[in-house]
Amino acid sequence: xxxxxxxxxxxxxxxxxxxxxxxxxxxxxxxxxxxxxxxxxxxxxxxxxxxxxxxxxxxxxxxxxxxxxxxxxxxxxxxxxxxxxxxxxxxxxxxxxxxxxxxxxxxxxxxxxxxxxxxxxxxxxxxxxxxxxxxxxxxxxxxxxxxxxxxxxxxxxxxxxxxxxxxxxxxxxxxxxxxxxxxxxxxxxxxxxxxxxxxxxxxxxxxxxxxxxxxxxxxxxxxxxxxxxxxxxxxxxxxxxxxxxxxxxxxxxxxxxxxxxxxxxxxxxxxxxxxxxxxxxxxxxxxxxxxxxxxxxxxxxxxxxxxxxxxxxxxxxxxxxxxxxxxxxxxxxxxxxxxxxxxxxxxxx
Length: 349
Description:
- The chain is α+β, with helices and mostly antiparallel strands.
- The protein is 56% helix and 6% strand.
- It has 17 helices and 6 strands.
- The strands form 2 sheets. It has a 4-stranded mixed beta sheet. Strands 5-6 form a two-stranded antiparallel sheet.
- The chain is globular.
């Protein structure tokens, strides 16, 4: 299987100067004051220019030289403003101003002692946790549909930002806490007291600072820049899955001939799930289950069932997590990534 399986959120970031829609201080006076106040508190000049970018990043580009401050450009990654709340955005901006990388899953750079004293350690820890979990959600939710299509089709869609927007808004900022169970250990977070999502607002920074009409204008303005960021990643993902597509075609031919082994039946189901998605793979997992009732096959069956019947899929994954040690960790990880779609009422006497 390919090493580059997903379009990663952290890779949706261009080199060089951030570009996009110009930030208008008259439209966003509260956020403008936040940025100016942070710069004053950190002892640095405000950025010469601010833009809303299509990147999954908040970053400051400052060239070298005597007049660097006059040429600095702050890029406010619009997708990240849907993920962070207002306080977390303030912490993310502070991280960017001290040279840290502010992208999903990339926890590098920055002076945590200084920023912890300025922002508060709990807020810094929460912001870094949110960024770490954003990488997981982007892979399994926000960008999953685009990654799946890239594995099959050589050409990316036009205006893919609309699809990302729908996924971001559908998931929102709720139901993130179970993801803490699947977050890998991180020394930086451990030094801040551990990963946490305690506190914070249910409203995103975009909802807190931007009025609806302006937000719509930004979404529209960033459609073409997002397509440009996506195109090379799409091409890489498609090319990387060429061996998987060829193997799936070979196994499908053997399936039609009735020559698949039990192991190949499960392999074909997994390949089709990776390349074409859960709905296409679910019948193949059912065939594999009919041939061999193995825990890994049961996991594939439950995983793909979610596309057809989320309640039954959640119940099946809960049973696997509780009763099948071989796949219990994978089942718990899948449960953590699933959005909360229903409330289980207490049983009555």
